[in-house]
Design a protein that fits this description.
Blueprint: E1 6-13, E2 27-34, E3 39-44, H1 50-57, E4 65-70, E5 73-74, H2 82-91, E6 92-95, H3 108-118, H4 123-136, H5 152-164, E7 170-174, H6 182-197, E8 201-205, H7 209-212, E9 217-222, E10 225-230, H8 232-236, H9 239-244, H10 251-263, H11 274-284
Parallel strand pairs: 3-8, 3-9, 6-7, 7-8
Antiparallel strand pairs: 1-2, 1-4, 4-5, 9-10
Helix pairs in contact: 3-4, 3-5, 4-5, 5-6
Length: 286
C-alpha cells in the first residue's frame, strides 16, 4: 500500500513550559504509517507519548518538527488555514477517555446532532446521520433519553455516535475504555470492531492487552519514541521487551513463556485463545 491515510515522518513535540531536561521531548522523532481501513493499536506506559501523538494527528497540538500527512495533505505546513484544520478534523475524529467531558446536550439525539449541525448540514441530512450513527452503536432506542442517566459504556457509545455522525475516515480512540467497567469496555470494543469491519480506519490507544490483540497492527511507544511495531503476534512474542516498557503481555503469552522456561517446553510465543493455549500445553506435556 503506497498511500497511507496517516503518515508521520520524524515528528517531535515538546510541551511548552514543561519542567524537563532540554532534550526531553514528549514525542521524539516518531515515524509511522496507518493505512486506510486498518485497525492500529498504540500501547505505552503513562508518559510514553501515545496520546500526544494522537493530538498531533488531529491538530489539537502542532508538531515542533517533522511532517504529518493526513490523506496525502501535509498538516504541518506553516501556511495551513483554518479551513484546512477543519477538513483534517472532519477526516480524523477523536473519542476521549471520559465520556462525560464529550457530551454537550441533555438529550441523546441532540448530542449526536451537535457535530453535523456545526457542519451546517440541512436538517434532513442531520436526521439521517443521527439515526444511522445511533443504529451503528446500538443506541437508537435511547435517542430521547438523558445522557446523564446512562451507564459509562452507553455514554461512551453516544460519544462515538457523535463522532460517526461527522462521517470521518478515521476515528482515534484515546483510551476510550479506560474509565469503563468490563461490560462497558466490551460494549465499546464491539462497536469499534464493527466500525473497522465496515471500513472505518481505527486507531486505538489503550493499555489493555486484550484490546490490542484485536488490531491488525500494534505500535508500542516508550519515552516518546516508537519502540516496537508489528502484528500482535510479532509484538507480543517479545515479552521481555514489553515488560521493559512497563507493559503487561496477554495471559496466554505470559503463561507459555513461563512454562517454556521452567519446563523446557518449545511452544511458540504468540497470542492464543484459551482453548488453543490449553491444547498446546496438553500436547507438549504428553
Amino acid at each position: 500500500m503506497s498511500n497511507p491515510l496517516i503518515k508521520l515522518e520524524n515528528v517531535s513535540y515538546k510541551y511548552p513550559n514543561y519542567d524537563v531536561e532540554e532534550n526531553n521531548f514528549a514525542v521524539n522523532n516518531v515515524s509511522l504509517e496507518i493505512e486506510k481501513g486498518e485497525f492500529v493499536a498504540i500501547l505505552g506506559h503513562n508518559g510514553s507519548g501515545k496520546s500526544t501523538t494522537a493530538k498531533l494527528i488531529n491538530l489539537i497540538l502542532t508538531a515542533d518538527s517533522g511532517k504529518i500527512y493526513v490523506d496525502g495533505k501535509d498538516i504541518t505546513d506553516e501556511n495551513l488555514t483554518d479551513d484546512d484544520v477543519f477538513e483534517v478534523r472532519k477526516k480524523v475524529g477523536m473519542v476521549f477517555q471520559n465520556p462525560d467531558n464529550q457530551i454537550v446536550a441533555t438529550v441523546v439525539e441532540e448530542d449526536v446532532a451537535f457535530g453535523p449541525e456545526n457542519l451546517g448540514l440541512p436538517p434532513k441530512e442531520i436526521r439521517q446521520r443521527v439515526d444511522e450513527a445511533l443504529e451503528i452503536v446500538n443506541m437508537k432506542e435511547y435517542a430521547r433519553h438523558a445522557p446523564h442517566k446512562l451507564s459509562g459504556g452507553q455514554k461512551q457509545r453516544i460519544a462515538i455516535a457523535g463522532t460517526i455522525a461527522m462521517k470521518p475516515e478515521c476515528i482515534i480512540f484515546d483510551e476510550s475504555t479506560a474509565m469503563l467497567d468490563p461490560q462497558g469496555r466490551k460494549e465499546v470494543m464491539n462497536t469499534i470492531k464493527r466500525l473497522n469491519k465496515e471500513g472505518m480506519t481505527v486507531v486505538l490507544i489503550t493499555h489493555y492487552m486484550n484490546e490490542a490483540v484485536m488490531a491488525d497492527k500494534v505500535i508500542v511507544m516508550k519515552n516518546g519514541s516508537v519502540y516496537l511495531e508489528g502484528t500482535p503476534n510479532q509484538v507480543f512474542s517479545q515479552p521481555e521487551k514489553l515488560w521493559s516498557a512497563g507493559l503487561e503481555v496477554p495471559q496466554s503469552v505470559e503463561l507459555i513463556d513461563k512454562l517454556n522456561k521452567e519446563l523446557s517446553l518449545s511452544i511458540p510465543l504468540q497470542v492464543y485463545d484459551s482453548d488453543t493455549c490449553a491444547e498446546l500445553i496438553k500436547n507438549e506435556l504428553k
